Amino acid sequence: MNKKNGIQLIILILSFELIGFLLGLLTQANIYSWYEGLHKSILTPPGWVFSVVWSILYAFLAIVGFTLWQNRNKPHTKTVLSLYLVQLVMNWLWTPLFFQLHWLGFSFLWILIMVGLNAAIILMTVRSKEKGILLLIIPYFLWLIFASYLNGIIWALNAQA
Question: Residues near 42 by Cβ (< 8 Å), separated by ≥ 6?
């Protein structure tokens, strides 16, 4: 990687971390007034775990996006890049859907679609033998599955009859 690409990657990682920070501020506004009062899974981690995990995952996602963009002219990469961008926007929109609008059921369906998109990304990446992308996207995929479980349990336990 040349110096220009290294600087671009650092800027992208910092941008993703800033977006994550801003989404965290949106979340914080509803933690005590709403989220803390919800019935949740016994597997729900403490709040600080979410901050640490998402910081790591956003760095991974920035690297994945950078790598896909750098390889966008390779066969199948355009499709993977498109799916990546769609799921990324969906990721960023999930926070206001869940924490601002309190759309528990819709948020659950939304995150399930994200899981499906990432499964497709993983399958396409396995076929293209892009091991670097695969190693960075799998932890995110596994966290999305866990987050889907948490969202689904919250929806099930807090749905109004």
Answer: none
* Residue ranges in the chain assigned as alpha helix (H): 3-31, 47-70, 77-95, 104-128, 131-158
- The CATH architecture assigned to 3-159 reads Up-down Bundle (1.20)
Identify which of 91, 87, 76 has the alpha carbon closest to the alpha carbon of residue 130: 76
Token reading at 23 = 């989404």
CB within 8 A of 74, min separation 6: which ones? 128
The domains of the chain are located at 3-159
Nearest in space to 100 (alpha carbons), one of 18, 21, 35: 35
Share of the chain above pLDDT 70, in %: 99
Confidence grade of residue 90 (pLDDT, cut at 50, 70, 90): very high
